[in-house]
Amino acid sequence: MPGFELFGDKERKQVNDVLDSGVLMRYGFDGMRNGHWKAKELEQALQKRMQVSHAQLVSSGTAALTVALACAKVGAGDEVILPTFTFVASFEAVLSVGAIPILVDVDDTLTLDPIAVEKAVTSKTKVVMPVHMCGSMADLAALKSICDKHDLILLEDACQAIGGSYEGKPLGSYGDLGCFSFDYVKTITCGEGGAIITNNKEYYKSADQYSDHGHDHIGKDRGAEDHPILGYNYRISELHAAVGLAQIERLDDFIATQKKNYSIMRSALEKIPGISFRRVPEHGVENYSFLSFYLPTEETARKTIKAFSENGVDACFYWFDNNWHYYRKWNHLKDLNGLNSFSKEIKNGLPNYKVSDFSKSDHWVSRNISCLIKLGWTDEEVRNRANIMANVLLNIVDFSDY
Ligand SMILES: *Cc1c(COP(=O)(O)O)cnc(C)c1O
């Protein structure tokens, strides 16, 4: 997945443009910047690649989710439905706007289970937030029909799935709002950065203002601009945007490389009885940043991940035990352990996650292993790796009982 693996002259040239002018700020300083507007150019490139009318860059993927929720006017006591398998950023963003994260089960897609979503809808629900974990997407058509039925906003967390598509649309562009992260491990990187994409002009206007202290961005001089709304600083810098500008040009090459490496690994594992693969919803195309598969049981999954590591197969993840990506270890959320106290809406509204039944999620996640697909591998390296993985599965993990 990581764009930082293939980092070179293009990135250096873009960054040097910014360093040469000395203008690190994305707004203003028109006369000093030698015509360089890296953040604006990256926004245009994103609009084009994602086939949307608006893109707003911000300082991180977490900031993108936060700003997107604010644009959708999500606030105190509103409920946002999101999956048990995600990154902590998803519920951090929800809590930060005063809303309540309502976790629901994932299914064999490793993303939101539409049946669980429908069951979780209440009169307080405002947003459904599928998280396209590890490069593949939720069943977006099913989620959209739930959103249409209950008048909810569909917000795609596409931070890990840039470059994938659904019904021919780039992931992130299917919902009302879509968010990307360009942090250091994502498919394309700015070092730190994120973006919100939308076809909704009002959302875009709000994002543009909210992410820059409420600036209306219509004045000539920043100091003279007005502040129609309260906002914060979620701006990206020109230096970060410059890196992203070089990386987005390479996105389709990165995806093609990932697809090639993924296919080699997948065909080696497909021959092994007892293994099944993560379900990709119909009309969906992954970005191939991970190969995710299921073992017959939790026990065989644990044996496999241990044997992978003992045989030098790195970058494979057993999310069931992961601190940051699965609800089981989110004690800080379960205990609402923040620095300062939360509002009564959150305290009263947060379900008691210590007793919640997420056995459906456990059923899938406890048997899942996801292996990162790197860009820098040679064909030979991928084939060797695939052989080792297949050997481990055939010889070390005993499937005979299953
Ligand atoms: C990385 C990530 C984020 C947050 O992005 P940052 O840029 O690191 O803040 C949010 N959601 C998911 C699914 C992610 O993987």
UniProtKB/TrEMBL annotation:
Molecular function GO labels: pyridoxal phosphate binding; transaminase activity
UniProt-listed InterPro entries: DegT/StrS_aminotransferase (IPR000653), PyrdxlP-dep_Trfase (IPR015424), PyrdxlP-dep_Trfase_major (IPR015421), PyrdxlP-dep_Trfase_small (IPR015422)
Gene Ontology biological process terms from the UniProt entry: polysaccharide biosynthetic process
Entry keyword annotation includes rRNA processing: no
Modified-residue entries (N6-(pyridoxal phosphate)lysine), positions: 186
Domain of life: Bacteria
Active-site residue list: 186 (proton acceptor)
Keywords of this entry: Pyridoxal phosphate
Family: Belongs to the DegT/DnrJ/EryC1 family.
Protein's recorded name: dTDP-4-amino-4,6-dideoxygalactose transaminase
